[in-house]
Amino acid sequence: MYGWHGKALHVDLTHRTTAVEPVDLGTAKQYLGGRGLAVRYLSDLTSPTVDPLSPENLLILATGPLTGTPAPTGNRYMVVSKSPLTGALSRSNSGGTFPTMLKQTGYDLVIIRGRASRPVYLWIQDEQAELRPAEHLWGKLVPETEDSLLAETHRKAKVACIGPAGENLVRIAAIMNDKNRAAARSGVGAVMGSKLLKAVVVHGTHEVALYHPEEMNALCQQVRSEVRESVRQGSALREYGTAYVPPVTNELGILPTRNFQTGVFEGVEQISGHALKEKYLRRPKACFGCPIACGRDTEVQEPPYSGEGEGPEYETIAALGSSCGVDNLAAITRANYWCNELGLDTISTGVTISCAMELAEKGCLPIADVGRPLHFGDADAVIELVQKTAYREGFGDRLAEGSYRLATSYGHPELSMTARKLEMPGYDPRGSKGMGLLYATSSIGASHMMGDLAYMEVFGVPRKLDPLAVEGKAAYIKHFEDLFALVDSAGLCVFLAIRYLLSQDYQVMPTRLTQMLNHATGAGYTSEDLLHVGDRIFNLERLYLLGAGFTGADDTLPPRMLAESLPEGPGRGHVVELDRMLPEFYRLRGWDENGVPTAAKLASLGLNG
Amino acid sequence: MQIEVRLFATFRRWLPASAQGSRCQIEVADGSDIGRVLSQLGVPIDQPEHMVILLNGRPVGPGHPLKPGDVLSAFPAMEGG
Ligand code: SF4
Predict the structure, then answer these.
(1) Any idea where the domains of chain B sit in the sequence?
(2) pTM for this structure?
(3) Which atom number of ligand 1 is nearest to the Cα of residue A76?
(4) Spelled out in words, what is the top-level CATH class assigned to the domain B2-76?
(5) What is the pLDDT of residues A215-241, one digit of tens each?
(6) How far is ligand 1, taken at its centre, from the CA of residue A286, in Å?
(7) Structural domains for chain A
(8) ipTM for the complex shown
(9) Among positive and negative, which fits the CA dihedral A21, A22, A26, A31?
(10) What residue in B sits closest to A241 (Cα-Cα)?
(11) Scanning A105, A254, A337, A601, which has the fewest C-beta atoms within 10 Å of its C-beta?
């Protein structure tokens, strides 16, 4: 096989066994890899009704056919599971160098089930897979864990591991790789913790076989030089990282502020990429083979916030910063370091703390429960609560459940800024309406990474769309959801794919992505075939959700987004008119009025059993 | 007339010395349109499809006229966050 290795590693932690099974080429073609193939396995091997923290749940680490190839940013992997935060799917994406090395072991995906009787780690060296004791690592922070594992396996191995948050079954825990990169969303770290699996360590020497190596290299070279040229002319991502975004979203009035009470933050200049560059940036950092280098290697020297690490990215700044009313960039950066070291999703952590702050300010949360007064803007409270969350210490035990369970336990679920119980990312959908439809319909809940129409509504790529309009957004969201399913399954970073691999015509077709996939795999896709693959993946996910007990009624947003209008900014007076987009979205998807795929739709995708 | 200009991300390099953070108040000739003001600042506007222009927070094109007190913001079309 080309592009794919054609092999899956199955690991049973309960019985301490490993087995290698071939990946069927037809299935690989239909689901591509990464997210698509992993959701196929999850659906085939488990019931969608499993308890996410039980041994029956699967934890799947999946690369795509372009992971580990010369494709620029072909450095992603996906973690797919059933989420302990949402009860829906988890699909968490990370880059760095671990995913490339995972692919080089010779496996396309690793499928983990069961629960170990004592903490273990999985060590994969080329085809050899071994479970090793990890008692000595349990309780350790992410950087120490990685350092110890490299010392006891292979100097050039790569590590994905959980920190104390995952061990403590914190529902917003991440799986960290390369110390600072996170497969963050929807609690995959807790699934790993529930299996008593501390880490997966990989070292491999298998190159990925390519169907048309010369053509592939030429195309990748061309894309690479285009990116280099654009970086030379000035790239916001290279110069500021994603931290360039706060002033932009603030200008549109959609920068989440004080738990999404408004979208305009008075402290925006202090938390911008410019401030980060002036004060804390050591150097831009790239994932494997990426010419963009949007990562930030940073250091803070101001006590009590001093430390070093990576970040913050835009989403982190929005969640731990403006959503908590915090404009102290040193503190936000330190809180980010803590999240990385403890293994927490910065988005969910920040938005859960901001929910607690709103509960406290509204008098719904007694000071005695928190152990301290809690107000928006209190940077030190954020730092303290991040740590308590990871250890479930005191009030941290409440925060560890995520904002929906927190707000509900105090009788105010409406103050939880979540869709499908997943905390909303950094675009207030009242001023970016397509994002509202996306959050409501995504298979994992409120994630921008499931079909990020902010590209068009906010960033003007490939073309500017009016963020306040609802007309036509259903079609765009369907299209973007399918495109993102593709990019996630191919093994690429969306930052590159959106800008350089899609043609910028009305349809936003995956033209160069199609060529790359064909050169890598020889599958002979057309761009239409690929969109069909994206549609198939999205519908398979929908079937999983329906099987897990979700209905069309769950395709919704917090009441604040639907009924409380934005108080200021260009979107002043606006709410998300979900009822004006959702019926059209269902129709375009080939779903009935309850959000259930019709038999004809399923048949057209080959999903009818 | 006076307007406020805000330039973000890599466009910050064209902010005049009087700017506070990413914002500045500037005097422009009556009847100026957005394109003229941006070119005066040095922002290249030959490829308007590669930039986002907001007038009082709402997307507009470079030919749009200005009135006193307007807030004009611009940034390159970008990769996202
Ligand atoms: S653009 Fe950023 S996140 Fe994407 S691969 Fe490059 S460095 Fe990693």
Answers:
(1) 2-76
(2) 0.97
(3) 5
(4) alpha beta
(5) 999 999 999 999 999 888 888 999 999
(6) 6
(7) 7-203 (3.60.9.10), 237-423 (1.10.569.10), 429-605 (1.10.599.10)
(8) 0.94
(9) positive
(10) B81
(11) A601
